[in-house]
Amino acid sequence: MTTDWQSVRDEFPALAHCTWLNTATFGQVPLRAQSAIARHYNNRNLLGGRDFLDWFAEADDIRQDVAQLFGASVDDVAFIPHTSSALSLLVNGIDWRKGDEIVTFEEEFPNQIYAAAVLEERGVRLVRTRLTEWESALNERTRMMAVSQTNYANGMEAPVPEMAAKLRAQGGLLYVDGTQTAGARQFDFGACEPDLYSVNAYKWMNSPPGAGFMLVSRRTRQWLKPATVGWRSDRNWRNVNNLHDGRPEFSEAADRYEGGMLPFVNLFAMREAIRLLAEVGLAEAVRLGLGTPETAEGLPVEQVEYEGWFKEWMDRFAGQEKLAVLPPPEGLQASLRSYQQYGYSWLAFLRRWGLGACLADDMGLGKTVQTLALILHEKEE
């Protein structure tokens, strides 16, 4: 089935007057998601909320959508307001011992750094490593590794399957923040099962802030206790006319970590965004977004010959020349952080190929200094 890309673009009115390059900060919420919010409030105006148990039934349908998108079981899915709550649940649920280590990356998002740093008063050591050297940072004292699947500062992607297997083999835990990946890249949770995978869906999943979920592996649910206890903690909470009186009996599914009411409007909006992804096809959306057609139409092409500047360009391209990290220009009166040095090197690399670039680092990460470094590099060359 051919996708009507104009109708997809029409879901995002901002695209009529701008090119949106800031999804790594906030994604655009599609109109169908906005309409879902309005429908929910219209329904509450009509019924006064007396059908609220139906809202939970709809939330269970959304669990199924999330599970299907990420290769998980429905029992793995719990809704969260933000990834900080998921990370805190795991960090505070571990019986830390003095001398334990928690490993994260250099230039990692503050969530992972702060959560590990506050454990230092309990004798836990924070170890920061380069992504390319993660395996050598693990040892018998490593209790947990906390990483972003895609780094917010440099765009590098963590090898989650390899990390999960290595840590599982040595008895460690793996926490992964997938916020900068989910919706842009496919991820099969069931195939590698990190202990906890969390997503705030307001970026590439085009949902409102506050729409989030975590996937908690079955082995982790067997020992990780809920940090939030409320009226939905007992597994028979749906029997609202006769709620359990006494110690709650927790569900074995991940919804045991929710405890109370859910942010229904955010979840209903997220459902529409997920279904839009499903209709388009995540792989197709990414492929076409990169300009790669699914099929080539017309006569078969058996050979291509080129000459002039294009021949020189293609010869270099076929040689698969790789990016080299450049030293800072001598005339630069500033210090470059590692990701800024990498970004400036990337700009210079593409310029050598005659290609333009879009430096889409998040706000405050130093796009200006990287651009100035490129200009100085060109002058010194």
Give the overall silhouette.
globular
Q: State the distance separating the first and last CA atoms.
A: 51 Å
Strand content: 5-15%
- Radius of gyration over C-alpha positions, nearest whole angstrom: 24 Å
**Into which percent range does the helicity of residues fall?**
25-40%
Number of helices: 13
Derived structural class: alpha/beta
Task: Give the topology string: H per helix, E per strand.
Answer: HHHEHEHEEHEHEEHHHHHH
Number of strands: 7
Q: The biggest beta sheet, please?
A: 7 strands, mixed
* Mean pLDDT rating: 88
* Poorly predicted regions: 288-298
> Numbering strands along the chain, what is their spatial order in the largest sheet?
1-7-6-5-4-2-3
Helices, strands, pairings?
Layout: H1 5-10, H2 31-47, H3 52-70, E1 77-80, H4 83-93, E2 101-105, H5 110-117, E3 125-129, E4 142-148, H6 160-169, E5 173-177, H7 189-192, E6 196-200, E7 212-216, H8 218-221, H9 264-280, H10 282-289, H11 308-318, H12 338-352, H13 367-380
Helix pairs in contact: 2-9, 3-9, 4-5, 12-13
